[in-house]
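Hi F.,

I've been meaning to write this up properly since the lab meeting, where we talked about keeping a consistent format for the predictions we share between groups. The idea is simple: the sequence comes first, exactly as it goes in, then the structure tokens exactly as they come out, then a line or two of notes. No screenshots and no reformatting. I'm using this chain as the first example so we have something concrete to point to.
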Amino acid sequence: MLKVNRISKTFNPGTINEKKALDNLSLNLKEGDFVTVVGGNGAGKSTLLNAVAGVWPVDGGSIELGGEDITGLPEYKRAKLIGRVFQDPMMGTAPDMWIEENLAIAKLRGEKRKLCWMVTKEDREVFRDRLKVLGLGLEDRLQVKVGLLSGGQRQALTLLMASLRRPKLLLLDEHTAALDPATAAKVLEISDQIVSENHLTTLMITHNMTDAIRHGNRLIMMNAGHIILDIEGEEKKHLTKRELLDKFAEVSGTQEETDSVLLS
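Output, unedited:
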């Protein structure tokens, strides 16, 4: 479903601030793969997601999604193929619009906009059914402004919006990092449910190694713009946080104590 072929990205080339964020990186995801991505600060995790989403062009290499070469496709055109949930609960929604209005916009993603639009009775029934699955009581608050929701409720709504049109790829960019532990656990539970029910191909960045091990069917670890570990299947199921730290120290050649702080 996703084929990243030898992509590179360098920021501020030729200056004292030059930073090679991605270095000839390749990654293939099968349809339905749920891949968690871990790595220290500056490893290239967010750069990878932004490159796939089209936030900025890559310096070299290619990106294919569903068999289509999207390397030169601008971000707004990739939006109909890719759903994304950001770290900040304030992003991804229109805070001054109602819940049902936000969902109506998400329903039209990738379609040509009209001069006017409205939420139909049929739309409301569909939205209520989808929201009910979240278990947050939002199905009875369709005409509440999204800005009045809690961070967890908003992230859950954003997840629903990102998956409403069943994208070819779902990007979760540390989407629980700004939430308290209990709320983060609930949002991750909802994430698992949405990914599983819709059979979505998913890339999830996280700094929490326990979450990276517990969720998804595959785990990759990045360091200095490279993928240094790729673990799936039975090996991932039985992986422990201690073993992951040891593998990181072994492969990256850095001090375990430092890695433990970066990845905790």
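Notes:
Residues 2-94+152-263 form a domain with the Rossmann fold fold (CATH 3.40.50.300).
The longest helix spans residues 181-198.

If this format works for you, I'll send the rest the same way.

G.
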